[in-house]
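Re: [ENG-882] Designed sequences occasionally contain unexpected residues at chain ends

Forwarding the minimal case from QA. Structure tokens:
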């Protein structure tokens, strides 16, 4: 005679099995998510980030909602004019902008809205147009960069925040991971 606690193999109903597999499946899903988050944290710390574009300041090249891949800026990594970077502004806002002025250079606005670096007009064929609002010449000190949005007339950048220290630059954009098809 079988004890009440013992069940005959034939008498096990499906609900007990379902409960068991639900618990086991939940644990497996938890560990898969945990491993994913650990990998994402390591990726973000050592390789790069996946920021999402917010706003129109980088149009026509980068649009609201696009996901970008940026690699982390290392001490020995060079930053060049024309690079698109992710930077932390003085108010804590994380922004995406293009490098215009390098350490030691002076950035200014020409009479017709063109952007000048050390008195010479630079190619800004990637931008949405010339500057409509004049700004004062700004000289970048050592380890400082002048950043501007591609949609120049709709961008809060170095004309608003001032120059950006290298330590405030978080990553250089390498490519779009996701685009809404624009």
């Amino acid at each position: 005679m079988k004890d009440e606690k013992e069940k005959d193999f034939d008498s096990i109903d499906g609900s007990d099995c379902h409960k068991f597999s639900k618990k086991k499946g939940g644990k497996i899903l938890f560990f898969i998510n945990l491993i994913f988050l650990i990998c994402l944290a390591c990726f973000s710390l050592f390789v790069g980030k996946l920021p999402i574009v917010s706003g129109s300041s980088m149009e026509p090249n980068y649009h609201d909602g696009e996901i970008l891949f940026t690699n982390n800026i290392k001490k020995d990594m060079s930053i060049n004019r024309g690079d698109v970077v992710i930077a932390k502004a003085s108010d804590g806002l994380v922004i995406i902008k293009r490098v215009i002025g390098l350490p030691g250079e002076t950035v200014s606005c020409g009479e017709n809205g063109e952007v000048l670096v050390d008195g010479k007009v630079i190619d800004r064929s990637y931008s949405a147009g010339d500057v409509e609002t004049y700004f004062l010449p700004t000289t970048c000190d050592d380890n400082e960069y002048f950043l501007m949005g591609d949609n120049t007339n709709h961008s809060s950048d170095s004309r608003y925040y001032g120059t950006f220290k290298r330590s405030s630059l978080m990553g250089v954009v390498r490519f779009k991971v996701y685009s809404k098809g624009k």
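QA comment: On inspection the terminal residues look reasonable. The chain has a mean pLDDT of 81. Proposing we downgrade this to a documentation issue.
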